[in-house]
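Entry: Multiple sugar transport system permease protein
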Amino acid sequence: MQAEPSTRGAVPDLAYPPRKTGRLAQLARELGKNKHYYILMSPYMIIFFLFTVIPVVFSLALSFFYFNMLEFPRFVGWQNYARLFLNDDVFMMALKNTFMFAVVTGPVSYFACFLFAWIINELSPKVRAVMTLIFYAPSISGNVFFIWLIVFSGDSYGYLNGFLIKYGFMLEPIQWLTNERYILAIVIIVQLWLSLGTSFLAFIAGLQTIDRSLIEAGTVDGIKNRWQELWFITLPSMRPQLMFGAVLQITGAFAVAEISIALAGFPSVNYAAHTVVTHLMDFGTIRFEMGYASAIATVLFGLMIGTNMLTQKLLRKVGD
C-alpha cells in the first residue's frame, strides 16, 4: 500500500488567504438574526422616514432657494440666512425670546418634574396614583391653558385683577395680555405649568424600576444619606428616563407657539412674545415664502440638535 505523503512542516498555501467577513455580510447576518424585531419596527420606521426624515432633508435643501409656491424655486445660496441674521430684526427678537423660554422653562421644568416625581414616589401607592394624575392632567387636557385667559383678563372680572383690586394692591385693572412688559413672563408661567406632564410621568416610571438591592448595597458601601443615594444610585439607574425627559423639555421649550398665540395674539404686541416658531408660521403659512421659512426651520433644528448633544454630554457625567 502506498503511503500518504507527509504534510508535517509544509508551508501553507498563501495564494488563497482566508476571506475576511465584510461589514455588509455581518449586517446581513444581523438583520437575518433579528428579522422579527425589524419587521415589527418597520411600519413606524417607514412612517418616520416619510414624514420626518424626508421633510427635514427637503427643508434643508429648500432653505437655499427662493420659493413662493407659485414660481419654480430659484437658487439663492446663502441669501436667506444672510437676510435672517443681518436684516430681520423681528427674527432676532424672536430668537432672544426663544432662548429666554429655553433657559427658563427647560431647566426649571426639568428639575421640577424630577423633584416632584422623587417626592411623590415616596408616598403610598394610592396617594401616588392620585398625585400622578393631578400632575399629568394638564398635559392630556387639550387646550386647558385657555383658563389662564380668565386669570389674566384685562378687566376687573379677571381673577388676578379682581384679587389685587379687592385687597388694595392697585386701583385700576391691568391689561396683562396687551402690555409688552408682562406678556413674556405670563407665557413662560403658563408654559411651565403645562410642562409638568410627560417628563414627570417618565421620571415616576424610572424611579419605580430602580432595583432596591442597589440601595442596600450602597448602604453597605458607605452611602450615608439620601443625597448620596440620589447621585450615585438613583440618577445613574434611570439615565434613559432622564434623557427622554430632557429631549421632551428641550423640544417643548424651543417649540413654544400655540400658547403664545392663544394668550398674546399673533403677532403679539410689539412682538413681545414672538418666538422662532411663530416667525416660521408667519413666513410659511401667511406670506408663503417657503425658502425663507425653511431657513428659519433649519436654524431651529440646529439649535435643538446642539442643545440635545450638550444635554447628553452632561447626563453622561451623572453619578461620576
